[in-house]
Amino acid sequence: MPYVLNGITLKQGKGFTIADGTQFPPNWLKLSTDQEKQNLGIVWRDPPPKPTPPPPTKDQLYQQSANVRWEIQDGGITVTFDVDPLLVVPIPTDDQTQRFLTAARVKITENPNYVIESYKIGPNQYVSLTADMITLISERVEKHIQDCFSANKLVDAKIEDGTYTTNEDLRDAVEWNDVKAASGNIETAKTDKYNESITIKDSLVANLSDPTTEAAVVYISMLDDRLLELEQEINSSSTQQQLDAIDFNFPVFGG
């Protein structure tokens, strides 16, 4: 976004010379007041608006819808067993895990007492999974995947009828909410929370009339600092309740 003097664009951080030979240092534009600029005949000229990209086609939206499904589908689930003490087992839902569970189900048909002796659920954390537990996990994974496809079908229907027309519509589609909630996956919830914080920060920057002014640069730096704090808060959360309690609380420009 340029300042202009006699039809010549002045660049931030670069010195310039006016008609009478007076030279100005590289930081003059940054440090001078609006009145000082006006006294020299320096004016602000808004750049031409950026061309608006064409909206995505339906085929592109269908592909993005599938991409979102894949992210959720492979995001994993959490299975809780009502034992003493309560056992919470995070389960990946990628293709490799599905094959592993299928093989385990086959072994259970051959040996109803089959047990996975050491299933890793975290750093230096291992549990034994009985045949009943393996079966429940397998059923939950199958349901999670089917739920993802069912939600995808609903989203595609709204693409077809014109309800969803942008990639943002697809990522925020309410049809995914039940799938995410049923998965019990805190990592998916963390990613959603962080993406929401980035969206808010970007909108605050976009609303600045001139992000190149000294005050705006300082403000953007404050937003970046707050985003870093939020990332740390989100990563340290271990429950949905803790995530829900996080207040974005971004600073207000000029506040």
Structure description:
There is one protein chain. With 255 residues, this protein is α+β, with helices and mostly antiparallel strands. 53% of the residues lie in helices and 13% in strands. It contains ten helices and nine strands. The protein has helices at residues 28-31, 34-40, 58-73, 95-110, 131-160, 167-171, 177-183, 186-206, 214-236, 240-244; strands at 3-5, 8-10, 16-17, 23-24, 43-44, 77-81, 87-91, 116-122, 125-129. β1 (3-5) and β2 form a beta hairpin. The two termini are 24 Å apart.
SSE topology string: EEEEHHEHEEHEEHHHHHH
Give the count of helical stretches: 10
Q: End-to-end distance, in Å?
A: 24 Å
Mind summarizing the main beta sheet? 3 strands, antiparallel
Report the radius of gyration as a whole number of Å: 27 Å
Shape: elongated
Provide mean pLDDT, rounded: 89
Q: Could you estimate the helical fraction of the residues in percent?
A: 40-55%
Layout of helices and strands:
Layout: E1 3-5, E2 8-10, E3 16-17, E4 23-24, H1 28-31, H2 34-40, E5 43-44, H3 58-73, E6 77-81, E7 87-91, H4 95-110, E8 116-122, E9 125-129, H5 131-160, H6 167-171, H7 177-183, H8 186-206, H9 214-236, H10 240-244
Antiparallel strand pairs: 1-2, 1-5, 3-4, 6-7, 8-9
Helix pairs in contact: 3-5, 4-5, 8-9
Short summary:
The protein is α+β, with helices and mostly antiparallel strands and 255 residues long. The chain has helices at residues 28-31, 34-40, 58-73, 95-110, 131-160, 167-171, 177-183, 186-206, 214-236, 240-244, and strands spanning 3-5, 8-10, 16-17, 23-24, 43-44, 77-81, 87-91, 116-122, 125-129.
